[in-house]
Design a protein that fits this description.
By secondary structure, the protein is α+β, with helices and mostly antiparallel strands. The protein contains 4 helices and 16 strands. The longest helix has 16 residues. It is globular, with a radius of gyration of 24 Å.
Length: 337
Amino acid sequence: MTRLSTVISLLLIAVAACSPSVGSLGSPAAPPATPAPSVEIPSGDATPDLSSPEPGATSEPSSSKSPGTSSSPTPAHSSRPTATPAPSGTGTTVVRAYFVLGSFTGNEGLAPVLRDVPRTKAVATAAMRELLAGPDEAEMAARPAMYTAIPDGTTLLGISIADGVATVNLSREFESGGGSASMQARLAQVTYTLTQFPTVTGVRFQLDGVDVIAFGGEGIMLDKPVGRDDFRDQLPAIFVDRPAWGASLGNPGTVSGEANVFEATFQVELLDAGGRTLLGKTVTASCGTGCWGSFRTSLAYAVDRAQWGTVRVFEPSAQDGSATNVTEYPVWLTPAR
């Protein structure tokens, strides 16, 4: 080896030693900036696999009508949530946003949806951005449809978290338009979205960096941190918090949430892609008849293939047994393992 070759070899070795390691995935990227403190991510949510068929598509239209079905049942090929990628474990994070789910029985209220976002420690910021983006086309086209009470143009200016309280700074558009019901609904959407994280128990609001004491023309008092209990009147009578709208149920799967119904008792049904009832179950919440109680129940069901189905909860009428306070939305069903 010539002297010149030896010098070149030594220079190449020195450059390699000072460079970051490069593998099959390329050079390591610098960690992204985190505009909000990291918080604990809740467990128990999953999204359908991207390879799943279009939700609601089936060649077997419903031949039966179960309790709680509206007078204009959803067609077999109606719009349902589009499949979203399953979390990769390294590239994405699943967060929740809470929108308002309509009702054919006058029982509308909050319901969660899942969103895949690029993996980040600033999950509270990511969840708020998804909330402000509003429901997607499939959610707005579903029956019943979803909507948001948060005004267009509302932007997130910042989030800080300390001692279990998230202080969210929103632009002034957040306070524009709407009456008392709309004001309560938008506050509830933000509060439920931020308190999905176990380390956040309360929320303070700011508009353009100024603390909010009285919100809107109705003067809703926000002089202290608010939590989920402050907005229970924005929930349907039977509030399913898990599974989320359009999420995988699992088999067996868990349905959990809160209810305020007569004698704390209501029904849970699971329907397959053709609208046939797979199972029905009586569930009792921890409190009822004027008070909110929690509930949690496990559903084991039989399907021969993965498909979109419907979870339906309702309260049988004390007069004639008809379904009242109906909440229903799509879930991804899978055969038992």
